[in-house]
Amino acid sequence: MxxxxxxxxxxxxxxxxxxxxxxxxxxxxxxxxxxxxxEIAAAQGLRDLRELRDTVRxxxxxxxxxxxxxxxxxxxxxxxPPGGAECRCEGFPCRCYSPxxxxxxxxxxxxxxxxxHHLRIGAGAGFQGDRIEPAVVLAAQGELDYLxxxxxxxxxxxxxxxxxxxxxxxxxxxxLEARMEALLPICARARTRLVTNMGAANPRxxxxxVAEIARRLDLKxxxxxxxxxxxxxxxxxxxxxxxxxxxxxxxxxxxAANAYLGADALLPALARGADVIVAGRVxxxxxxxxxxxxxxxxxxxxxxxxxxxxxxxxxxxxxxQVTGGYFAxxxxxxxxxxxxxxxxxxxxxxxxxxxxxxxxxxxGAVTMQTVKEQLLYEVLDPTAFVTPDVVVDLRxxxxxxxxxxxxxxxxxxxxxxxETLKVSVGYHAGWIGEGEISYAGPHARARAQLAxxxxxxxxxxxxxxxxxxxxxxxxxxxTDFGHAGEPYEVRLRVAGxxxxxxxxxxxxxxxxxxxxxxxAGGGGFRRSVSDRVGIVSTLIPRAEVLTAxxxxxxxxxxxxx
Length: 561
Hints:
Layout: H1 31-44, H2 49-53, H3 100-103, E1 118-125, H4 133-141, E2 146-149, H5 154-166, H6 176-190, E3 193-196, H7 203-216, E4 223-227, E5 254-259, H8 267-271, E6 276-279, H9 284-296, H10 303-316, E7 344-349, E8 354-358, H11 368-375, E9 385-386, E10 391-393, E11 398-403, E12 406-410, E13 413-415, E14 420-440, H12 444-459, E15 467-471, E16 489-498, H13 501-512, H14 514-517, E17 522-541, E18 548-552, E19 557-560
Parallel strand pairs: 1-2, 2-3, 3-6, 4-6
Antiparallel strand pairs: 1-7, 4-18, 5-14, 7-8, 8-12, 9-10, 10-13, 11-12, 14-16, 14-17, 15-16, 18-19
Helix pairs in contact: 4-6, 6-7, 9-10
């Protein structure tokens, strides 16, 4: 039996936007569900379940316009005001007259001339190296309207800029091809639109690659690219650095600067009906907010709805973190089947109320705890959480568990967006040299400490930033063989920042030289040298960031605004 989404019945003779759901149901899968459906049908005076089923949103997203009970000449349900004399609910929330988030997406008669009333958006990635398998499950079984792949961070953007400098055809996410080959066929069959920032430093090349993959897989998909986040040429040396209080004048080797675009940058591509939208640096939550604005008919100055949508995007932006990833702590915060962690989706209605959930049968959990932890992720000021689209006040946010792995979110408020956009600035910050060696057996810690002292004496005067760590107690043999107090094995790691590559290489060579010039029993050497990328942030006037959208084919672009 096909599972149907949560649906609602409405008070007759009341405008739809003023109505609140009274009955809630999710599927016809169980006998209990059928009993509940019969009860609701009887209360509504419906002839049988078929009339009630007609109020449910079908799998393909179509809605059926069914006359209300009053239009059929029968009385509708009587709604009890929350907290009234007849209210029998205990605690929060009152479920007699519950707002939209407790019932999920609201079903109302649709028209091609009006905006949709609800939307389902899934999170298919939370960072560049995220798993592909959970996104495939989510796309195939989640009945999504949109799938968002959020794959950028400050460092990955800067590293992508370096790759593009070496190869102009590169600079996008290294897993782009693998993700698209896995997801495009599924999204095409399900009519799920895909939004991603996997374009990184080269969104045009990324979009062309997506178009080529679609053509190779014989998929007729419209691909669009959004550009304008690269503002390297617009930086001024007097711009303030948020982390230090200084200015960009203090950083003379800047090679990348990417502004955090908002949801408005994606709207032209959405309006043109693109099936896949590829962008560069778009703010994480904005990737989710843009479909809400486009599909639910929100205005760009409707700060209350924008705040609610931005909050939902913030909760989904890290994908598995809200379903139990980066949360589990055995014995304290147990998460079931973490090896097969499911990715989340949100059902959001026209008012911006949402319910976070995941595909049934997948690992992980959506609970008050997992949602609360993600809610506070990267939030510096809960009274003014700044995004490119709206400034969100989180003080009024409320959560409620409304079912297994279903948490309702509401209560965020908003104020006008700022006149500036944050810019992530990448600069060459020298080199990092690193070396490691292991010591195992009796007196392992003492021998590792002696080796550390030798390296401090030899490298300290030339490498002031030298860092020495003694890592682990069982990395060599997998056990300490019962040695109490003293570890059976120790891994010594030495690293330092330098201005030249030669000095960085010397760090690793000095560690390796301990083989015959240091304590007994050292082994398992490793050394490396890498170009160090520094990241600072600044602000740039919004008016100076010019964005554009273009439709993309495999080998040519057609300009579109």
